[in-house]
Design brief:
Length: 299
């Protein structure tokens, strides 16, 4: 019975760990597949599915089916490589069993980035680091509520357990009967240091690092005072640079598709902030830092 309870507690903790990891993974994946805006795609091409294929497998293949029309599906590559190491033979496939053998004369491979890899690995790494910190924050915060160990005789274990349940349940008064011996009750304080705020700051920095990888604007600077406009602009350099590889890979595919099929497809990066005209000198312009550590308002 006791072993089963211990196993239940272990699985409950493992379930929370898995759910926290999946939560971050899904959030980052959703951001990753919504960053690009495909323009003038044929109605038979699903941009969401296309981005999912690029995210998970690093590539997709664009071609024209005689009955369905233009498609962009997952692909398996094989056969010989051309002089630029691009596979000349590729097979499109779908979950419903659809398959189509293609080559470089009737299809175009769309790559996720210029090194032809997916975004799943990076997303998994960021999600793991974020979930570890999130769960560490939970443990440390909970330790502030129950920073004690209770020492008692074996025959009083159940009594102490019931008392602790009342204590953990925030009951204002805890009553004991006349058989409760205060001499046998010993409480050992663990005095767990409160570091949840530092862990949260670190988690925020890693989250911003993930956003920078995805090319999403963020303020990854920890300062107590306001940020000048030039500091914010320099910080966005990494964000803009992170967009180049994935955007250029998609645009290269657009050029090849347009040339092969006579279409007018294009891909842009969605703007995630409003462009503000800088009418004042950069040294004078101020930008509020939402991550100020003192928690005070800039107003």
């Amino acid at each position: 019975m006791r072993a089963n309870k211990k196993e239940s507690q272990f699985y409950e903790s493992a379930k929370r760990n898995n759910r926290t990891y999946i939560q971050y993974y899904n959030r980052l994946m959703e951001l990753a597949i919504s960053m690009f805006e495909w323009k003038n795609l044929p109605d038979t091409v699903d941009p969401r599915f296309l981005e999912l294929a690029l995210f998970g497998e690093g590539m997709a293949v664009f071609f024209k089916d005689e009955e369905i029309g233009y498609l962009a599906l997952r692909t398996m590559i094989g056969g010989h490589l051309n002089v630029y190491q691009i596979p000349t033979v590729r097979r499109a496939f779908a979950s419903n069993g659809y398959q189509r053998d293609l080559n470089e004369d009737n299809s175009v491979i769309i790559f996720n980035n210029l090194i032809h890899t997916n975004s799943m690995l990076d997303t998994e790494m960021f999600s793991e680091r974020l979930y570890n910190l999130d769960r560490a924050i939970d443990v440390n915060a909970n330790a502030q509520k129950t920073p004690i160990l209770i020492s008692c005789d074996e025959n009083e274990r159940l009594t102490m357990k019931n008392l602790y349940m009342k204590y953990d349940g925030n009951q204002p008064f805890i009553f004991g009967d006349k058989n409760l011996s205060p001499n046998s009750l010993k409480v050992i304080k663990t005095d767990a240091p409160y570091v949840a705020d530092k862990l949260y700051t670190l988690k925020t920095q890693i989250w911003n690092e993930a956003l920078t990888y995805l090319g999403i604007s963020n303020i990854n600077i920890q300062k107590r005072e306001r940020l000048i406009t030039d500091e914010v602009t320099r910080n966005q350099g990494g964000v803009i640079a992170s967009r180049y590889s994935r955007l250029e890979a998609r645009r290269q595919a657009c050029d090849k598709i347009n040339e092969m099929f006579g279409l007018d497809i294009w891909c842009d990066y969605r703007e995630d902030f409003q462009v503000i005209e800088e009418e004042q000198n950069d040294s004078v312009g101020k930008v509020d830092n939402p991550f100020r550590e003192d928690g005070e308002s800039d107003e």
